[in-house]
Amino acid sequence: MALALLSVAGFAQGDDFGTCLSVEADKKINKKFSVGLEAEMRTRDDVKTVDRWSAGVQAGYKMLSWLKASVGYTFLYDNNEKTSYYDADDEVVTRDIGIHAGDLKRSAQYWGVRHRFNVSLTGSYKIGKIDLSLRERWQYTYRPEHTVDHRTIYYNEDDDEPVPAGMSDGKSHTYKGKGKSVLRSRLRVEYKEKGFPITPFVSVEAFNAWNLEKIRYAVGAEYKINKKNAVELFYRYQHVNNDSDDEPNRHVIGLTYQVKF
Asked: Which terminus of the chain faces fewer neighbouring Cβ atoms within 10 Å, N or C?
């Protein structure tokens, strides 16, 4: 019910909608050690824009019957949107030419790469047919320096006249490289019925970087085709903290194909 209310409220406020399609492959080396590969494609802007492609590798080690550790690396190829806005301190805002604080200033859209590393600890506990798991993940992402050929401008300072969106400033601009650390805490609940191929689940995940940046709520189910193949279908709602300049609030429909070797 809570997820349904969040969904309705989000659409009423004009939140974004996207998809997430992925493939995962896992290989169990022995009783304790496993390795895996994954590839993913995401869309945004009501599925009109490809948001990113990614590919990753990870390794897991079962420390105890209820505790697993893992490390991973992911290469991300992002469709970035960089936008700036006029504020009250900009000189042109005080002029009587129709420019106000909060109006668009410049924007750029370009494809760029990111490198992401993570270390995780996952604890699990079983209560009858209910499986509970709590994953704590430290994630570090580095975005290398990138230069774009031009940016879109929304005001021509030489003529003191607003210009239509889409006009290029004709100048290259370099976005400096930067890194970011995030702590991701995810609680997941699964219901498993012996001999039944469908496993429904719900989860909630919080992203913290000195403050709460966003929360992801998800509900879905995994369908086990056979011992080595499965598919997972889910709905996810992402709520972003108002103080964060990260992604917008977004509704996502996802599909994952899983294979074990």
From this structure: N
Provide the token pair at 161.
């006249």
| Interatomic CA distance for residues 44 and 42, integer angstroms | 7
CA–chain centroid gap for 95, Å, is 40
φ and ψ of 6, to 5 deg: -60, -40
Q: What is the pLDDT of residues 14-27, one digit of tens each?
A: 799 999 999 999 99
What confidence tens digit (pLDDT) does each residue in 64-108 have? 999 999 999 999 999 998 888 888 777 777 776 777 887 888 888
Tally the residues of the chain: 261
CA separation for the pair 119, 138 (Å, rounded): 5
SS (H, E, C) 38-98: EEEEEEECCCCEEEEEEEEEEEEEEEECCEEEEEEEEEEEEEEEEEEECCCCCHHHHCCCC
